[in-house]
UniProtKB/TrEMBL annotation:
Residue span, ABC transporter domain: 2-246
Gene: sufC
NCBIfam families xref list: sufC
Keywords assigned: ATP-binding, Nucleotide-binding
Protein known as: Fe-S cluster assembly ATPase SufC
One Pfam family, short name: ABC_tran
Any coiled-coil regions, as ranges: none
Length: 247
């Protein structure tokens, strides 16, 4: 379970998170919606341990551990995964080598046996097939020359290979057409189960037609101002965020 209590955070002296209270039980997918500048991406960065964000109050516990006391690589090894809104390009770094190196780094941290090149290729091809991606993706440099949809699918490929217990999807639907949105969502849904939880951060209700959440939360002004079922997302789509803040 992820439990956030009174979380406050700032960047460069500007307070962004102003008291986040949120619980995501094990095995559930929760969506966070809100307008630009509300603190959605800041929350994802704080949870993943990105530098430059100062925690000024509150606590975050995950499976009984103090998440904020862990280094980013420790959070990843423990099963936390962040899918970026804007995946970066890594010229000169082959995608297959990057993915295998990342996977084996996590396996080493967990005391598990590393996978050799042949075993990795077999596993990667299975995941590529599920995501309707070509094996050629493995031969390219990380995200270099990728379309927006390919970058997001590559993020979901990473997630499928790492098999996290907690995923944070920071506006994964940004810039996706309908076909890419469906494929990415199917990749996320394939991980659903009693041992997988997720925070899905999005502006739009359309993603939640594919990844149906257990709960929806509205984040505005650095605080969760309202929570509800999937119907809340539909209400926001129809009426906008002004009604949510007034509710």
């Amino acid at each position: 379970m992820l439990r956030i209590e009174g979380l406050t955070a700032e960047i460069e002296g500007k307070q962004i998170l102003k008291g986040i209270d949120l619980e995501v039980p094990k095995g559930e997918i929760h969506a966070i919606m809100g307008p630009n500048g509300s603190g959605k991406s800041t929350l994802s960065y704080v949870l993943s341990g990105r530098e430059g964000y100062d925690i000024t109050g509150g606590s975050v516990t995950w499976n009984g551990q103090d998440l904020l006391a862990m280094e980013p690589e420790e959070r990843a090894a423990a099963g936390l995964f962040l899918a970026f809104q804007y995946p970066v390009e890594l010229p000169g770094v082959g995608n297959a080598n990057f993915l295998r190196t990342a996977l084996n780094a996590q396996r080493r941290a967990r005391g598990e046996k590393e996978v050799d090149a042949m075993a990795f290729l077999k596993l990667a091809r299975e995941k590529l097939k599920q995501l309707q991606m070509s094996d050629e993706m493995l031969k390219r440099n990380v995200n270099v020359g990728f379309s927006g949809g390919e970058k997001k699918r590559n993020e979901v490929l990473q997630m499928a290979l790492m098999n996290p217990s907690m995923a944070i999807l920071d506006e994964t639907d940004s810039g996706l057409d309908i076909d890419a949105l469906r494929i990415v969502s199917e990749g996320v849904n394939a991980l659903r189960g009693p041992d997988f939880s997720a925070l899905v951060i999005t502006h739009y209700q359309r993603l939640l037609n594919y990844i149906v959440p257990d709960r929806v939360h509205v984040l505005m002004g650095g605080r969760i101002v309202r929570s509800g079922g999937k119907e809340l997302a539909e209400e926001l789509e129809a009426q906008g965020y002004g009604q949510a803040s007034a509710a």
